[in-house]
Every structure is written in structure tokens, then in C-alpha cells.
């Protein structure tokens, strides 16, 4: 069967990667979490003294951007890909609140986006890919055959993230997560380069009141209607 490209964009913590990963596994496509790539650049910046307090040393980051190697490897225990930064598994570290608080400013930088988009497009060259993020349907794969834009209320999204961190045994404050979700949405929607917005041809999904299973079924049905239109 001919392979297609699937772009899933939307607001933070609404379930994009959950549905994207599940679909990719079911249909045998590659799954790429583009947010993990921006998070890895952010972690690198924190660990190398490039992002201190609220200041980013953009000149140093620009010089080092080609030394930042990001890759994904399937974790057999979870059945999902883990993120590697220069050969080190950083899957847990990139999900910390410190990285969440710093990732949106890093993602406004044009040279960072240019490098990430280049790598993402190379990963999707042969199609058969599900990628989730903020600009996949608008910038990375504007010709994707299936585009979805996911949203849910900020409170519901913060609660989902809170439950997730709690389940992993990480310290978390619902109020802090809600503030972070709102702040990232604001920065992501208002940045100059590739702001978060729904592509005109993207299908809108508000999953505020859908279960994980319901949204999985919804996405599978949309996929089927693209690959088997009759
Ligand atoms: N429809 C849903 N109902 C309840 N929880 C959900 C739903 N979709 C996803 N989740 C949970 O919400 C959290 C955030 O989902 P995730 O897929 O990481 O979001 P995103 O990729 O948009 O940031 C995860 O813990 C996930 O299990
Ligand atoms: N394609 C993308 C993906 C993420 N990002 C940035 O990376 C951040 C983290 O993305 P993410 O997908 O991991 O965020 P969550 O919704 O999973 O918390 C976003 O808030 C954006 O600032 C982006 O600018 N473009």
C-alpha cells in the first residue's frame, strides 16, 4: 500500500504524541516527536551554560547547533522511542519542568528551527511517517496527505500532564503546570518563525471529552479514509 505522511499539530499536552505513537505502531510507520528535538536542544543549552536564568547566549548556540546530534531509539520496555542527545538517553530529563519552562524561548530562534526542520524533512523523505509538533502541517510537511490539529481546554491539558508526572513519581504542582501550558501556548502562537496555527487543510480535533481509545479510533478512521477513500 502506498505510504503517506501524517502531520499532527496542536497545543501543548493535549495528547498529540499519544495518538501519533499509537497510530504509527499500528500501521507500521515511523513516529517522530518533533517537540522532543526542541526539548533536547534546550537541555543541551542548560547543561552547557548557554541558557542561564532567562538569558540565552544565541551566538554560542548558533556556533554549536551542528554539534547537537539528536536521535531516537526504540525502547523495548515501553515499545516507544526514547530521545538521545549526543548518544545519551535523555528521555526523562527532557520532560522535566525546567526544560518545559525553557523550551518555548529556544523554539523561537530561527536558526534552531531551520536545523530541526531540515532534520525532520530528511526523516520523512520516504513517507510512512507520523510526526507531531507545532509546525508539521504548516512548515515541515505542507504536502502531508493527513493533517490533524488537536486541542483541549488548558485546564484539562494541565491535569493530564500533572497525572502523568505524578504517575512517574515526579514532583509536580498543578498550578505550575497550568501556568507553563498557557505560557508555552502564548509564545508558540505568537513567535515570528512558524507560529503554532492550524493549517487550512488540517482536521480539527477537540479531545477535551474523548478518551484515549476514542481519539485513537477517530485517527485510525481518518487514516483509513485517506488511504482507502472508497
Ligand atoms: N484523551 C485523553 N484523555 C485523557 N488523557 C489523555 C488523553 N490523551 C492523552 N492523554 C494523556 O495526557 C498526557 C499528555 O499527552 P501527550 O500525548 O504527551 O500530549 P502532547 O504530545 O500533545 O504533549 C499523557 O499523560 C497522556 O497519557
Ligand atoms: N514542531 C515543534 C514542536 C515543538 N515545538 C516547541 O517545543 C515545545 C515542546 O513541545 P512538546 O511537543 O514536547 O510539548 P508538549 O505538548 O508535549 O508538552 C513546544 O512548546 C514548542 O515551543 C516547536 O516549536 N515546534
UniProtKB/TrEMBL annotation:
Where does it localize? Cytoplasm
Q: Which InterPro entries match?
A: Cytidylate_kin, Cytidylate_kinase_dom, P-loop_NTPase
Q: Which GO terms describe its cellular component?
A: cytosol
- UniProt keyword terms in alphabetical order: ATP-binding, Cytoplasm, Kinase, Nucleotide-binding, Transferase
Q: Per the UniProt record, which EC number(s) apply here?
A: 2.7.4.25
**Which GO biological process categories is it annotated with?**
nucleobase-containing small molecule interconversion; pyrimidine nucleotide metabolic process
Entry binding sites for ATP = 10-18
Predominant location category: cytoplasm
Under the heading Gene3D superfamilies, the entry gives: P-loop containing nucleotide triphosphate hydrolases (3.40.50.300)
Query: Care to name a GO molecular-function term for this sequence?
Result: dCMP kinase activity
According to the entry, every stretch annotated as the Cytidylate kinase domain falls at: 6-215
Q: According to its UniProt record, which reaction does this protein catalyse? A: dCMP + ATP = dCDP + ADP; CMP + ATP = CDP + ADP
NCBIfam families linked to this entry: cmk
The entry assigns this protein to a family as follows: Belongs to the cytidylate kinase family. Type 1 subfamily.
Q: Which PANTHER family match?
A: CYTIDYLATE KINASE (PTHR21299:SF2), CYTIDYLATE KINASE/PANTOATE-BETA-ALANINE LIGASE (PTHR21299)
Q: What is this protein called?
A: Cytidylate kinase
Instruction: Identify the species of origin.
Output: Bacteroides reticulotermitis JCM 10512
Q: Could you tell me the gene encoding this protein?
A: cmk
